Amino acid sequence: MFFWIIVACLTLIACLAVLLPVLRVRDSVADDSAFDLEVYQDQLAELDRDVARGVIAGTEAEQARAEIGRRILKLKAEGSTLAAKAGFGAGRIVLSVAILAVPLASWGIYAATGSPHLPSQPLHERMADNPQANPINELVARAEAHLAENPQDGRGWDVLAPIYYRNGRFVEAATAYRNAIRLLGASATREAGLGEAVAAVGGGLISEEAQAALQRALALEPDNPKARFLLALGLAQEGRTEEAQAAWLAMANDLPQDSPWRGAVAQMLGSKAEVQATPGPSQDDVDAAELMSDNERAEMIGNMVAGLDQRLRENPQDPEGWQRLIHAYTVLQRNEDARDALVRGLAALGSDSAEGAELKTFAAARGVSAAD
What we know:
Layout: H1 2-23, H2 25-53, H3 58-86, H4 90-113, H5 123-129, H6 136-149, H7 154-166, H8 170-184, H9 188-201, H10 208-220, H11 225-237, H12 241-254, H13 261-269, H14 283-291, H15 294-314, H16 319-331, H17 335-349, H18 354-364
């Protein structure tokens, strides 16, 4: 009720702000006319004083009086006309009614079609009422608010970490994984997720920190596909291509036929050939299948390669980095991008330098030439 009283008062003030100037027009006209008349009367009095002092001749004084008289008559005529127009006529009545009708009509329409008795629904109450019907951003906000009050809730960090990663919030994802590991203990899924998030923060580069997390995941679960795939990718980034290929091939032979990782491994091997599969998927494979499709995994690989490419554009004096990039593009069968990487690498390292010559030899072994 108090809210509606405030709304009514504010509406009344707004209407008066528009209505009062309309009602004051007549007073304004009367005030202006009276002021002008007083000025002309002062001029007549000054004229009489000038005649008495002999400053102005009688003929000139009469002409001046006649001119001032004409102005006074004209002023009275104009004042009468403006006063008539400014009177409370039909136009002003219509205008006043229209000003007052706007809030009255608004209140009436809202009372008939609105929901004035519907209770308010703050964000916190909406999320607590039915979490299943809330969009992902509201669920994340709910989880963040909960963790702000309960930072020792390891389960909350464990749930929030993969959501952060999928939303591209890689730094927050790494922090959430670290908190979950600290509070709940290490698991293959958490360590592999931490390694993936740390690599994403570095633009796709499998750093020492990421490698350590992935190796801890393999120690807990030797067949963890995410850890195996990313560690092999790290070998490829270091230029250890034969070891990377062997690791991917071994992984392909171990994966079940319906594993979502098979497409990504085949893409890195540069072949879609069938490989022998062990019967029956593991629980981790089932979890991975629920979390990521082939297209999402391919997108992840593309993002990692793009991150390496961007890093080399910013810091081109990295011979091993150029080799890793050329190899990645050839594995992905993106030959034009591989040739472009070779050209940029030679421009940065120097075509006649020892690093440039080694890069050309490396690329030629993979069928890439700057002269193509």
